[in-house]
């Protein structure tokens, strides 16, 4: 039987969830015997090359590119997991949701103490740049999400136990110490 | 027909980015750009929040080196609580933070070298992309993969012992630190088990430097000539010119080693540094005001630090620095691939520093926090794994943030990375009929040398894997390649 296929991505996140994933440490050597990786920032597979069993999504959606990537993941993955607070509820980037995006751009590119020479008042607006969404959206508001792993970031043990449960089909048993989030 | 090549997402870097390369109808490279495609808006949305939240809020810019943001913000808010700028903490406060920071440098550099960059060196830039990754390193070079994984783990355990948590910890607080190192934690890090052993970490760090030097001997062309271009270099250095990753004065040298920023107080950073906004990237372009937009740009990070520092205050790393400086004829190295060499020397330095600190009794006992009179502004700088990181805050009477300015490490490397992309693209793509995956990976190898943290760089709202697009001279996208 072929190995289950796993894909991962970071949308509007900080890569902390991916780092927590790597914090499974030497269990990563065990994991690569159990699963095959497809599209992920840790390898050079930039476009899906096959259907995947599990997609791990870090980060919410803050621009058109995030939305596109998330939909692509939904299309290619049987199971999608929202990994961490940003994917689940927008997280820290969603602190901008109560503020007009123009104010955020103005503060970064026009008002700061080291941009006083921006006399032409240039803002990033090239067609190469994705369009910012009006607010930061949690993933489940954009596509169907099957499972949610809370935490900022979710602990390595939580990620590990979840993956093992999804791979083996056994029920997830969470020890008390793992069910603790911040 | 001209064409436009897009590399998106850039992979095996931390964060999201995209490269576009325009070729004219003769196949000459007309324009290259590394775009940072996300924006978050931290500068605005932290306004109105209490200042003491900054060390835990702003580190959410980046989960790869959260400790750097945690500590730069802590140093800034130290000033606001009247605990001085970088040197006013108790011995316990400063040393615990330093231990946290060296743990961070150790894990971040290990991650970059072993997990992200080593596949290019071990398998070759033109290797099958399906195999060019850490998983294949684990299958084919198991010992090296174990070293990478366990070195990263060691650094993460140091962070956990000092910050309470491996990612997004809470150790540093305004004016100091919130815990001591316990005897158990000290024992665990000094000699915990087969891998939790500082002597083993030092020995593996030496092996890694040797591995690189050996590789260098066999691959001179790649390491010395690939993406080499004149650049200025900037970093903090200790007052006596030693490498210091936690605190110091700002120094910059030009490509020939002449000092162009003379060990100045970083409280005046905005007198010396300005940022240019270009409409095609969310990442700004910093430069030294005195030399203007076109000539004032500089590099930061491990290579810049080897070039600005006069010496290193730990013996093993100092020896390696001497070898490095001799190789470069006593002048700054302007060779992008030497970033890897410099990074490994810093891994060794961090391991030596961790050992020194673990044996320091100030970590076990002593006052944790310094108190003073409130001020309304704080500026904190630190040498993050990827280079100089600037945090600057102002607060009002109610202790709420009214202004935040951040210049993150990778932003400082914006122009150098763009120069590297341009140089490599021009070299490998000019006049080629077909743009191959290997050519695109060569461009990414140049970017990877800088270990860009595109996550940080998008503190405006962020994402950075690489995509290549090819445009003809009418600006029609005729080819769009993703890596893999």
Look at the structure and name the CATH superfamily of the largest domain in chain B: Cytochrome-c3 Hydrogenase, chain B
Count of individual domains of chain B = 3
| Whole-number count of domains of chain A | 1
Q: Largest interface, counted with CB-CB under 8 A?
A: A-B, 68 and 82 residues
Give the averaged pLDDT of chain B, no decimals.
Answer: 89
Oligomer: heterodimer
- Count of helical regions of chain A: 6
Rg of chain A computed from alpha carbons, rounded to a whole number of angstroms: 18 Å
Approximate shape of chain B:
globular
Instruction: Indicate the CATH topology of the largest domain in chain B.
Output: Cytochrome-c3 Hydrogenase, chain B
Q: Helical element count of chain B?
A: 18
Largest sheet of chain A: 5 strands, parallel
Q: Fill in the CATH topology of chain A.
A: Rossmann fold
What is the fourth-level CATH superfamily of chain A?
A: NADH:ubiquinone oxidoreductase-like, 20kDa subunit
The computed structural class of chain A is: alpha/beta
């Amino acid at each position: 039987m072929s190995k289950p296929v796993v894909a991962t991505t970071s949308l509007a996140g900080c890569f902390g969830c991916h780092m927590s994933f790597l914090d499974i440490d030497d269990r990563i050597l065990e994991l690569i015997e159990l699963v095959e990786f497809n599209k992920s920032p840790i390898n050079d597979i930039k476009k899906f090359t096959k259907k995947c069993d599990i997609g791990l999504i870090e980060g919410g959606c803050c621009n058109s590119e995030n939305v596109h990537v998330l939909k692509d993941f939904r299309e290619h993955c049987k199971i999608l997991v929202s990994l961490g607070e940003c994917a689940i509820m927008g997280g820290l980037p969603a602190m901008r949701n109560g503020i007009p995006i123009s104010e955020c751009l103005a503060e970064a590119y026009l008002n700061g103490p080291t941009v006083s020479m921006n006399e032409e008042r240039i803002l990033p607006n090239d067609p190469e740049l994705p369009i910012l969404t009006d607010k930061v959206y949690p993933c489940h508001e954009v596509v169907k999400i099957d499972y949610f792993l809370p935490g900022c970031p979710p602990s390595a043990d939580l990620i590990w136990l979840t993956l093992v449960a999804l791979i083996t089909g056994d029920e997830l048993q969470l020890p008390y110490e793992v069910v603790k989030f911040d | 027909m001209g064409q436009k090549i897009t590399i998106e997402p850039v992979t095996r870097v931390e964060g999201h980015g995209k490269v576009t390369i325009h070729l004219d109808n003769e196949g000459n490279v007309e324009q290259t750009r590394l775009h940072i495609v996300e924006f978050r808006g931290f500068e605005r949305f932290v306004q109105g929040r209490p200042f003491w939240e900054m060390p835990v809020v702003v580190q959410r810019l980046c989960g790869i080196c959260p400790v750097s943001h945690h500590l730069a913000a802590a140093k800034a808010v130290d000033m606001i609580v009247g605990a001085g700028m970088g040197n006013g903490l108790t011995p316990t406060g400063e040393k615990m933070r330093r231990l946290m920071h060296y743990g961070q440098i150790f894990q971040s550099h290990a991650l970059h070298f072993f997990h992200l960059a080593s596949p290019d060196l071990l398998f070759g830039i033109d290797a099958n992309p399906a195999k060019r990754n850490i998983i294949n390193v684990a299958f084919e070079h198991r010992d090296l993969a174990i070293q990478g994984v366990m070195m990263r783990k060691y650094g993460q355990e140091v962070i956990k012992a000092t910050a309470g948590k491996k990612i997004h910890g809470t150790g540093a607080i305004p004016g100091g630190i919130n815990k001591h190192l316990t005897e158990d934690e000290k024992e665990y890090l000094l000699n915990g088990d087969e891998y939790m052993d500082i002597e083993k970490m030092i020995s593996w760090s030496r092996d890694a430097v040797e591995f690189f030097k050996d590789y260098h001997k066999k691959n001179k062309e790649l390491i010395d000539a690939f993406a080499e271009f004149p650049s200025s270099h900037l970093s903090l250095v200790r007052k006596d010119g030693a490498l210091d990753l936690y605190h110091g004065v700002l120094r910059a040298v030009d490509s020939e080693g002449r000092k162009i920023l003379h060990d100045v107080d970083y409280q005046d950073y905005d007198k010396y540094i300005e940022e240019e906004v270009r409409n095609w990237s969310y990442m700004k372009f910093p430069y030294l005001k005195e030399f203007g937009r076109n000539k004032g740009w500089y590099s930061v990070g491990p290579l810049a630090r080897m070039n600005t520092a006069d010496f290193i205050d730990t013996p093993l790393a100092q020896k390696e620095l001497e070898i490095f400086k001799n190789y470069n004829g006593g002048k700054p190295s302007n060779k992008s691939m030497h970033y890897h060499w410099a990074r490994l020397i810093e891994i060794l330095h961090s391991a030596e520093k961790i050992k020194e600190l673990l044996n320091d009794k100030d970590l076990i006992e002593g006052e944790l926090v310094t108190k003073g009179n409130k001020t309304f502004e704080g500026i904190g700088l630190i040498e993050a794994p990827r280079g100089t990181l600037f945090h600057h805050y102002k607060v009002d009477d109610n202790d709420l943030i009214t202004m935040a300015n951040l210049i993150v490490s990778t932003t400082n490397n914006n122009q150098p990375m763009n120069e590297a992309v341009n140089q490599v693209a021009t070299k490998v793509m000019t006049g080629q009929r077909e743009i191959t995956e290997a050519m695109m990976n060569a461009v990414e190898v140049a970017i990877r040398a800088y270990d860009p943290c595109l996550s940080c760089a998008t503190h405006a709202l962020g994402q950075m894997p690489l995509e290549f697009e090819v445009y003809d001279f009418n600006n029609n996208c005729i080819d769009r390649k993703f890596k893999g």
